[in-house]
Design goal:
The chain is an alpha/beta fold. The chain has a domain of 85 residues: Cupredoxins -  blue copper proteins (Immunoglobulin-like, Sandwich). The chain contains 3 helices and 9 strands. The strands form 3 sheets. It has a 4-stranded mixed sheet, with no helix packed on it. A 3-stranded mixed sheet has the order 3-9-8, with no helix packed on it. Strands 5-6 form a two-stranded antiparallel ribbon. A hairpin with a 4-residue loop joins strand 1 and strand 2. The protein is rod-shaped, with a radius of gyration of 47 Å. The C terminus is likely disordered.
Length: 203
C-alpha cells in the first residue's frame, strides 16, 4: 500500500515539474517578427525627398542682355537698341562716386544703384523709343535713349548725334553791350509790325 502511494506521489511530482517547464518556455520570435534588423544585413536604400530648386527660375532667363555703365554724370552707352516685344535685361554698373538710378517711367523701370554696385532690370519694350534717366541727376543731363528695331534708333553703344555734355553753370560774361545789335533788330522788327511801345512800354 505504501508503495502505491509512493508511486502516485512520484508521478504527480513529475507531472507538476513537466507542466512548470512547459509554461516557462516561450518561443523566441524571429528578428523579422520583431521588426528588427538581422545582424550583418544591409539596410534598404532610402529614396531622397525631392526639393525645389533654390530661388526658382532665374530672373531674366532667356532675355537679351545689355550692360550700361553709370558714371558721374552720364550713361555709357548713351543709346541702346533692342528688339521690340522681346524681354531684355539691362545690367547697370555704377562706376561713379554718387548713387544713380536707371529709370524708364513708361515701362515702370526704376532701380537705384549705389557706388560700386551692380543692379539689373528686366522688361519688355514695345516698338517705340524710350528715354532712360537718372532721377537724381537728370538736371545734369544724365539720360540716354533706348530704341527698338524699326523705331529709328541707332545701334547699341553708338554715340548720339547731339553728343557731349550739357553745361548748366552760370555764365557771367554776357553783357548788355553784346546784346545791343539784337535789341536794335528787335526794335526795327517790332516797329514795322506795330507800335514799339508793345515791346518797350517804358519808352
Amino acid at each position: 500500500m505504501k508503495r502505491l502511494w509512493l508511486a502516485l506521489g512520484v508521478a504527480a511530482t513529475l507531472a507538476l515539474a513537466l507542466a512548470a517547464c512547459g509554461e516557462g518556455e516561450e518561443a523566441t520570435p524571429s528578428p523579422a517578427a520583431r521588426g528588427g534588423t538581422t545582424p550583418g544585413a544591409t539596410p534598404p536604400a532610402r529614396t531622397p525627398t525631392p526639393t525645389p530648386a533654390g530661388g526658382g527660375a532665374t530672373p531674366g532667363a532667356g532675355a537679351a542682355t545689355v550692360t550700361v555703365r553709370a558714371l558721374d554724370f552720364s550713361f555709357d552707352p548713351g543709346r541702346i537698341s533692342v528688339q521690340p516685344n522681346q524681354p531684355v535685361t539691362v545690367t547697370v554698373r555704377n562706376e561713379g562716386q554718387a548713387p544713380h538710378t536707371f529709370t524708364i517711367s513708361e515701362l515702370n523701370v526704376d532701380v537705384v544703384v549705389q557706388p560700386g554696385q551692380t543692379m539689373t532690370a528686366t522688361f519688355t519694350p514695345q516698338a517705340a523709343s524710350y528715354t532712360f534717366i537718372c532721377r537724381f541727376h537728370r538736371g545734369a543731363g544724365m539720360q540716354g535713349t533706348l530704341s527698338t528695331g524699326g523705331s529709328g534708333g541707332g545701334g547699341a553703344g553708338s554715340t548720339p548725334s547731339a553728343g557731349g555734355s550739357v553745361d548748366y553753370s552760370y555764365n557771367d560774361t554776357v553783357t548788355t553791350e553784346s546784346c545791343t545789335p539784337c535789341l536794335i533788330r528787335m526794335w526795327d522788327r517790332q516797329r514795322s509790325i506795330s507800335s514799339p511801345t508793345k515791346l518797350f512800354p517804358f519808352t
